[in-house]
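> example.struct
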C-alpha cells in the first residue's frame, strides 16, 4: 500500500477509536395540535426563566440547540427578536449508584439418582469494586410564539454517563443530547423514546 495513504488511514482509525458513544438518551416531546408553524421563520435561543444566562455551560447547550434548530429549518435570531423563542433549561448532577445486595453470594445445589445423591455449595465474590460516579444531564427546550406566548413545542432529553467519560464534558454532551432531542422533529406528542 502507498505510504502516503497509510498515514491518513492510521490517523482516521485512531480518531474513530476516540469517539465515545452516549448511552440511550431518553426523549419526551409534546406539541400543539397545529404544527404548521414549527420549523419555519426566525427563532431566538434564550435561557429559560431561573437559569443563569451568563453561564458558559448553559451557553454551550444553547449553541447546540441553535445548531439543531437551523438544521430543521429555522433561521436563528438575536435575543429579543424572532417570530418564535426557544427557552433552554439545563440540569446536570453527579450521583453514585448504590449496589444492590451483598458482594458475597452463596448457592446450594443437590441431586439424586440411581447411583447415589450429592450436595454442592458454591460461593461467589464480586470483586468489581463500588459502582463508578455518574453524571446525569437533562436538557429541556420550550418553543413559544413570541407575540402570543403560546407554547408550540416542548421537549426534554436526559442521559447518564460515567463521570470519567468524555461525554460528561458539557461541550461534547451538549451536541449529543441536543441531536437526540430534535431527532425526528417534532416527534409524536406525549411519547417517550430512547435515542441511541
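> example.seq
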Amino acid at each position: 500500500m502507498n505510504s502516503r495513504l497509510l498515514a491518513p488511514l492510521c490517523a482516521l482509525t485512531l480518531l474513530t477509536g476516540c469517539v465515545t458513544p452516549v448511552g440511550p438518551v431518553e426523549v419526551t416531546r409534546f406539541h400543539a395540535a397545529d404544527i404548521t408553524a414549527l420549523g419555519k421563520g426566525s427563532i431566538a435561543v434564550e435561557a429559560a426563566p431561573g437559569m443563569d444566562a451568563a453561564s458558559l455551560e448553559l451557553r454551550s447547550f444553547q449553541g447546540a440547540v441553535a445548531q439543531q434548530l437551523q438544521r430543521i429549518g429555522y433561521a436563528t435570531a438575536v435575543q429579543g427578536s424572532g417570530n418564535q423563542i426557544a427557552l433552554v433549561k439545563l440540569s446536570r448532577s453527579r450521583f453514585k449508584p448504590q449496589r444492590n445486595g451483598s458482594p458475597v453470594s452463596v448457592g446450594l445445589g443437590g441431586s439424586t439418582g440411581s447411583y447415589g445423591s450429592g450436595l454442592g455449595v458454591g460461593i461467589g465474590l464480586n470483586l468489581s469494586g463500588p459502582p463508578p460516579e455518574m453524571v446525569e444531564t437533562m436538557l429541556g427546550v420550550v418553543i413559544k410564539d413570541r407575540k402570543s406566548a403560546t407554547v408550540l413545542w416542548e421537549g426534554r432529553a436526559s442521559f447518564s454517563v460515567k463521570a470519567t467519560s468524555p461525554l460528561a464534558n458539557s461541550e461534547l454532551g451538549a451536541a449529543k443530547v441536543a441531536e437526540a432531542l430534535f431527532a425526528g422533529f417534532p416527534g409524536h406528542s406525549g411519547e417517550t423514546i430512547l435515542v441511541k
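> remarks
Residues 39 and 73 are 5 Å apart (CA to CA).
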